[in-house]
């Protein structure tokens, strides 16, 4: 850990708590940032595909009638069937969607029964035609009542991921995934290094984010090659890419911002977040709370 430890919570110095609380706002912001990055990417993607003007701040509102979603589903069907005709042998090994999504497109009022029916039909198509697993699915109220923005965003990314397999334009995040997968295949085949990328913006932004911690012993993050780093004592390998103003990390099968990733893994940032909750400076985050130790102590002043 890069921060000093104290014997227990009862002995904590108030100045330590104040110091930790002053740092705790940034981790809370970072927890929202990775969703913002995904919404920015998806909004730009939808706008490019269908000549729309969806804004990040009203992303869910722009899609809550289900009209654009159902129209996109039918577009995926069309492109997938065209792909199947041109590449029957390849398509035989893929799940090809083909059931038309019925929806009403005119005079649909947000929150109305018709809007809910449109969204429900899109969800049914995602489950039955694309076979998207439940962990990436959302429910009608998640969009209509904005109850679960995260799962809605993750589902759209997965829909885009499936569509890209048939040759449909993909969001930048999906394009970066494909680039990383190709890089890994190249390395396995030729034991060579990754394809060159522009190193300057990425390296600079990574250094700026790591520089937020002023502890004498910082959380280790070592550059292996362009866009590839080892982090922590376990030497976990992560892929890092720049998406507009965000530094993104490829984590397992998904994405996170580098700041949010460090908030969950760097002991210094975890302690700051923990003490922000104890002082009620920011709301509790159950997903991050589960990853923190109860014995976490505030950082040294």
From TrEMBL:
Places the protein is found: Cytoplasm, Cytoskeleton
Domain annotation Calponin-homology (CH): ranges: 36-164
A GO term, aspect molecular function: actin filament binding
CDD domains referenced in this protein's UniProt entry, alphabetically: CH_GAS2L1_2
Source taxon at top rank: Eukaryota
SUPFAM superfamilies linked: Calponin-homology domain, CH-domain, GAS2 domain-like
InterPro entries the record matches: CH_dom (IPR001715), CH_dom_sf (IPR036872), GAR_dom (IPR003108), GAR_dom_sf (IPR036534)
UniProt KW keywords: Cytoplasm, Cytoskeleton
An individual GO BP term: microtubule bundle formation
Domain GAR: 193-269
Gene Ontology CC: actin filament; cytoplasm; microtubule plus-end; stress fiber
Family (UniProt): Belongs to the GAS2 family.
Alphabetized PANTHER family for the sequence: GAS2-LIKE PROTEIN PICKLED EGGS (PTHR46756:SF18), TRANSGELIN (PTHR46756)
Protein name, UniProt field: Growth arrest specific 2 like 1
Annotated source species: Buteo japonicus
Lineage: Eukaryota, Metazoa, Chordata, Craniata, Vertebrata
